[in-house]
Amino acid sequence: MAANNHIYDCYRPPAQEFVRGEGPYLYTEDGDKYLDFIAGIAVSGLGHAHPKLVEVLNAQASKLWHLSNMFRVEGAERLAERYCDHLGWAGKVFFTNSGAEAVECAMKTARRYQHDSGHPERVDIISFSGAFHGRTMSTVTAGGNPKYMKGFGPAIPGFINLEFGDHEALKEAISETTAAILVEPVQGEGGLRPLPPECLRGLRALCDEHGLMLIYDEVQCGAGRTGKLFAHQWVEGGHPDIMAAAKGIGGGYPLGACFATAEAAQYMVPGTHGSTYGGGPMAIAVGNAALDLMEEEEFLDNVVKVSNFLKQQFEGLKDEFPDMIEELRGKGLLMGLQMKVPNVDVKVKALDHNLLVGTAGDNVLRMAPPLIITEDHVREAIDALRKTLIDVKAAG
Ligand SMILES: *Cc1c(COP(=O)(O)O)cnc(C)c1O
Fold it and tell me: How far is CA 313 from CA 22, 114, 121, in A?
């Protein structure tokens, strides 16, 4: 069904038009208030119109918008250093505008490393079912979701998609042409599936054994979403060689980053990669301010505390609606409910109760609220969800 406007019909947005945001709330022109429990899909982690981010962006807007990477961008080296300090394992950063570009840079870094370190035959990138890595040709191929590839073939060679959790298939698939393993520590789009810690450590060991690059896609599960700055930091000994981040690190301003160990990035020299806009002055200014806020002591503590409360409340809801909710999914404030009724029905109905939620694979109702929410916001969301489920039940 084509909508009556000139925008590509790739999305089917509801009728509501949001014109203003404040904290975890969005407002329409008429002043109707909605509780935002999806945050532009895990992007607006600091809430909408955070005064500090607004101030920094405004100040930067009157100074300098754009340079391109042919000149040094004030604050970029500092932001890279700050993230490398947080990560411990990373030594180099390439800034991008989006998650797909960050994943793209990660895959190029891995292949270039293999190529220039004496293994030009190592080109294949292994990923897993349920993965999501973006919508460019190569990241769609890496994601391996046939639905997103349909009609866009031929698939780009050099990608192998394996069944999530099939350890034997993985061991069998690794060959002399394997370059890297690409994985989300918590699958977002695929249905909010966290990888068990022993799996991350197992992947690390496997990559070390075979000389492969381990790439994490933390575009969705990073930036404090799970209660650590990055999700893999929950796992001792589970660090990657390369990592893509985006979404939350810009607090709503387009900013992505590819992090790599100094070793992995050593062959990414002049001429190998580039971006006109990536890591521009506006994005970097906001990125530094967003990290300032994420570094505040209460920030990650709040994510852990509120997500525990949310989980409890979800358990209660599941007990209340055993015929509608299958199970709880996710980690931290990237949490969802696998439904027994169509997830889309619940998402649409929730609008009637001024609650914004999303969907993910496996019929999961996806929630990724701003990370600054309080228990009161959780109560408000649960109340709206309860009413929504009652409506859906009555309609079904
Ligand atoms: C959203 C997402 C991407 C793509 O990010 P864009 O900014 O939309 O290009 C890649 N990987 C994961 C895990 C994501 O959630």
Answer: 24, 48, 51
Distances (CA, A) of 278 to 5, 63, 100, 215, 228: 31, 18, 12, 20, 25
Task: Examine the residue annotation and report whether 247 is marked as an active-site residue of this protein.
Answer: yes
> Which of 282, 237, 266, 271 shows the shortest CA–CA distance to 79?
282
Q: Are residues 180 and 119 in the same domain?
A: yes
- The secondary structure of residue 318, as a DSSP letter, is H
Question: Would you call 16 helix, strand, or coil by DSSP?
Answer: coil
What number of other Cβ atoms are within 10 A of residue 188's Cβ? 29
Q: Are residues 264 and 304 in the same domain?
A: no
Crossing angle between the packed helical segments 297-320 and 375-395, to the nearest 10 degrees: 30
- Known catalytic residue at 132: yes
Whether the CB of 178 sits within 6 Å of ligand 1: no
Structural domain for 162, as ranges: 64-295
- pLDDT 10s digits, 169-220: 999 999 999 999 999 999 999 999 999 999 999 999 999 999 999 999 999 9
